[in-house]
Design brief:
Layout (H helix, E strand, L loop, with lengths): L8 H28 L6 H24 L5 H16 L6 H9 L3 H12 L8 H15 L3 H5 L13 H32 L2 H23 L9 H22 L6 H13 L4 H12 L5 E6 L4 E3 L14 E8 L2 E9 L6 H40 L2 H14 L1
Antiparallel strand pairs: 1-2, 1-4, 3-4
Helix pairs in contact: 1-2, 1-3, 2-3, 2-10, 3-4, 3-5, 3-10, 5-6, 5-9, 6-8, 8-9, 9-10, 11-12, 11-13, 12-13
Length: about 400
């Protein structure tokens, strides 16, 4: 009997969640487009914010699907919401316009967050956390005078004051440049410490992210023709989402952070085939990963229940045999479409070899116990004459 390769519940749950989030994002974008379309002279301008937000939602889903253990996909989805929030400021409805004015520059803080959190989606040190916190302060707190005295509260009785707005624009710009300089210093330090393969991924990503933020804040002061400035800004914002998603998917760097986390998990995580398989899935970014064990006595690969499993060799499913001390102990079954680089799976297998060997022994004991129980049930169900012959055979053997 051979076990079929079945998509695990984890993969189905992740796909369902990502699908629901993407659909929700598209619905929010459609709602915003319906709200702001009547208020602008050119419809395509109104559509830019929702379209760019949808790009962030889709790329976020791709990044999250590719690397479930990283928060980059979640941050991209938050960036999509921030883009929608900035666009809603074009609506005529006072509350919607106020929300847009308050959150107009949050997407730039999200970009700084993405730059400093890549590739794990987590801020690794105090310097990064301080810079990101400062970025959100600049985007929210220093933005306040611009909407309080910039006309967003006129319907609430607060008069506009262009002089105050002009001063605070300078203050916010200077603070923003300071944030980007600090970000560039941290990222330069990381580039020096990165391996050559990682550096090839990080340099264009970091460079595009920093230059994009600086250009986005500079474009309004260039005196470009109507609609050209906003279009260029939003094109740069869309490019940021695409750039980070490409960075997630590039093979030379994509799994390094997860390998480090997986190695740390092996030293402190719970034992058992279930937790080990889940940790492998996170490390590889493939929720469909399966783990099977090699039983020398049977000369066969089995799952954690002791059921024989054929190693797949199809266009979508492949396997990598894991060895310990030169002997096979198990195999990792994975989706070749998600992990085209076999070396990544082999690297995870080498790290996990001891844990897999331990689980292999437990599986072997379970399989032996199951075989003994079946043998006992067979003898108990045999007729009296058969049991007598078995007893005679045993005496003869003695």
């Amino acid at each position: 009997m051979h076990d079929e390769t079945i998509r695990p519940p984890l993969a189905r749950s992740l796909s369902a969640a990502l699908g629901m989030m993407t659909v929700l994002g598209v619905l929010l974008a459609a709602l915003e487009l319906a709200l702001i379309s009547p208020t602008v002279a050119v419809v395509w301008v109104a559509a830019l914010f929702p379209v760019v937000a949808v790009i962030w939602f889709i790329t976020g889903a791709i990044a999250w699907r590719r690397r479930p253990g990283s928060r980059i996909g979640l941050l991209l989805w938050v960036g999509g919401l921030a883009t929608l929030a900035g666009g809603i400021g074009n609506a005529e409805e006072p509350t919607a316009a106020l929300v847009g004015a308050v959150l107009a520059t949050v997407v730039l803080a999200v970009v700084v967050h993405l730059l400093l959190a890549f590739p794990r989606g987590r801020l690794p040190d105090r310097a990064s956390r301080t810079i990101v916190a400062a970025a959100y302060v600049v985007a929210l707190v220093l933005q306040a005078p611009l909407w309080v005295w910039g006309g967003a509260l006129e319907s609430y009785g607060v008069a506009a004051d262009p002089a105050v707005v002009a001063v605070w624009r300078i203050v916010q710009s200077v603070a923003g440049v300071g944030i980007m300089v600090a970000t560039a210093i941290v990222l330069t330090s990381r580039l020096r410490e990165a391996a050559p393969a990682q550096r090839r991924v990080l340099m264009p990503l970091y460079g595009y992210g920093i230059v994009s933020v600086l250009l986005i804040t500079t474009i309004p002061r260039l005196g470009l023709p109507d609609f050209t400035g906003p279009a260029l800004q939003l094109a740069l914002v869309a490019g940021i989402a695409v750039a980070f998603t490409v960075g997630v998917m590039v093979g030379g760097f994509e799994r390094t952070a997860e390998l480090e986390e997986f190695a740390a998990w092996l030293g402190s995580g719970p034992s058992g085939p279930g937790p080990l398989r889940a940790a492998l899935a996170r490390a590889l970014g493939d929720p469909s990963v399966q783990l099977v064990y090699w039983l020398p006595v049977r000369g066969d690969f089995v799952d954690d229940r002791g059921v024989s499993v054929d190693l797949p060799a199809t266009d979508s499913r492949e396997s990598v045999v894991v060895e310990s001390d030169g002997e096979p102990v198990g195999a990792i079954l994975y989706d070749h479409r998600l992990l085209p680089d076999r070396a990544q799976v082999s690297a995870v297998g080498r790290i996990a070899a001891i844990a897999i060997a331990r689980e292999r022994l437990a599986t072997e004991l379970r399989a032996s116990r199951t075989a003994l129980l079946r043998s006992g049930r067979t003898r108990a169900a045999a007729p009296d004459g058969d049991r007598a012959r078995v007893a005679d055979d045993r005496r003869d053997e003695r």
